[in-house]
Amino acid sequence: MVHIKCRTGLYPFSEIRRFVLTDAQIPWAVPVENYSPPDYDSPVLHNKPWADPPCDDPNFRPKWNALDGKTNRKSHTGPYKIIDGRPLNPEGRTGLKGRGVLGKWGPNHAADPVVTRWKSPKELHPGTKLPILQFCAIQRRDCGQWAIPGGMVDPGESVSETLKREFLEEAFNSLENSDKANEEMISGFFSKGEEIFKGYVDDPRNTDNAWMETVAVNFHDDNNTTVGKFKLQAGDDAKNVKWIDIDSKLDLYASHSNFIQAVAKLRQAHW
């Protein structure tokens, strides 16, 4: 994978500028003279219960490439190397050492529910003559970009639990609104999904020592009778939420456009 999102000048939420790399210099197997990127851990990580301590903390003895208590330090890509006591990004250099704003050294696991419905009535695109699919999108508070309503897998939480929780919090504002009937319906809806991706994500927060990985699952409301008929309400990390027509021109956060394209192919819909 060639890093695109995580090589764009300034690191997110900071004034830290990445070491400039060409595409050819990304693989660790390629020697890069004087590779000395900034080493950055965001101040927001300090003493946070969800964040690892610094790697040089004598009380920090993580079990790399393993389930470390309730923290999953395994990578979907396979075993990663530990160099100088730090995990090494399996996809290569990013131009920045440390954790940046990511809480865990090594893989930081997320889950992304791609919730879709047909544009009603089953409207065909005039160009491709294929049905138009819509997905539930949220506008992120941190950067303003449109994205899939996903989030981090909490320690001890299953991916399936994260998928449902993140959708309820960000697209239904379940932290402030509680409707037992709706939640039971949504629980049934989220019991059936199709995995479309599992692995490393080209995320702007990635560093040489910490990176994002995700499991993306498509949950489709074929008749607009469950989630597709409900009014969406932004909550938690979402500023706005709406149904968006799926199209190749979409500009979405991180690798989310790739997930949306995979869903369009799966559902034989317009792209």
Kindly describe this structure.
- With 271 residues, this protein is of the alpha+beta class.
- The protein has three helices and 13 strands.
- The strands form four sheets. Strands 7, 8, 9, 10, 11, 12 and 13 form a seven-stranded mixed sheet that branches.
- The chain is globular, with a radius of gyration of 20 Å.
- The two termini are 23 Å apart.
- The mean pLDDT is 90.
* Residues in helices, as a percent range: 10-25%
- How many helical elements? 3
Strand % is 15-25%
| Terminal residue distance | 23 Å
Give the structural class. alpha+beta
Which regions have little confidence, pLDDT < 50, spanning 5+ residues?
A: none
| Mean residue pLDDT | 90
Query: H/E element string?
Result: EEEEEEEEEEHHEEEH
Count of individual beta strands: 13
Major β-sheet annotation = 7 strands, mixed
Approximate shape: globular
Question: How would you summarize the topology of this molecule?
Answer:
Layout: E1 39-41, E2 67-68, E3 71-72, E4 82-83, E5 86-87, E6 97-100, E7 106-118, E8 133-140, E9 146-147, E10 151-152, H1 159-171, H2 180-189, E11 194-200, E12 210-221, E13 238-245, H3 256-266
Parallel strand pairs: 1-6, 7-12
Antiparallel strand pairs: 2-3, 4-5, 7-8, 7-10, 8-9, 8-13, 11-12
Offer a concise description of the structure.
The chain is 13% helix and 25% strand. It is of the alpha+beta class and 271 residues long.
Essential attributes:
271 residues; alpha+beta; seven-stranded mixed sheet; two-stranded parallel sheet; 3 helices; 13% helix; 25% strand
